[in-house]
Amino acid sequence: MTQIPRTALWLGVAGLVPFVWGTVTLMSESAAGFGVAQFGPRYIGPYVQIFYGTVILSFMSGVLWGFAAKADEPVASLGYVLSVVPAIWAFFFVGGGPTSAIIYLIAGFLGLLGIDWLFWSRGLAPRWWLPLRAGLTGVVVLSLALSLL
User: Fold this and answer.
1) pLDDT above 80 (res 144)
2) Nearest to 113 by CA among 140, 75, 88
3) Which domain of life is it from (predicted)?
4) Could you tell me the pLDDT band of residue 2, with boundaries at 50, 70 and 90?
5) With contact defined as beta carbons under 8 Å apart, do 58 and 86 qualify?
6) Is 1 inside any structural domain?
């Protein structure tokens, strides 16, 4: 099966909302004002992107761990090691000011896509996994990059 399951696609697209919303609130004063009034300042601009991006990198570590569990040794051991990299990356590198945090998130998501490819190429992830992840990563990286402008 190479077609992305609807539920996975819709949940993936829904997961883009905080990244896109953060960019929109940086480019629109009215959107930022609405966001602050409705949700608070933590949920606009780079702050929502940094917080949510850190959560997603950690979440993806758990997903990758599940893929690693499908492998036989020694691939499983390498898979377990690689699976924790996104969470550790977020913990150690996503901090400081918003500019450096966004840059490290971009690097983290691009690195995650590389790890996704490794799992996918070994047949540990579903056939539809890489097309889904590549599209989602593209939007995430674009949203984060636009926030640097």
Assistant:
1) yes
2) 140
3) Bacteria
4) low
5) yes
6) no
Of all residues in the chain, the percent with pLDDT exceeding 70 is: 99
**What's the chain's length in residues?**
149
Contact 122, 82 (CB under 8 A): no
49, 56 Cβ separation under 8 angstroms: no
Domain containing 69 equals 6-147
Summarize the confidence of residues 93-110 as an average pLDDT: 95
Q: How far apart are alpha carbons 16 and 34 in whole angstroms?
A: 19
Residue 137 lies in a domain: yes
Structure tokens at 58: 């950690």
- Give the Cβ contact number of residue 49 at 10 Å: 26
Structure tokens at 43: 């949920």
Contacts (Cβ under 8 Å, ≥6 apart) of 148:
99, 102, 103
The total of structural domains in the chain comes to 1
State pTM to two decimals.
0.94
Token readout for 123 is: 């047949």
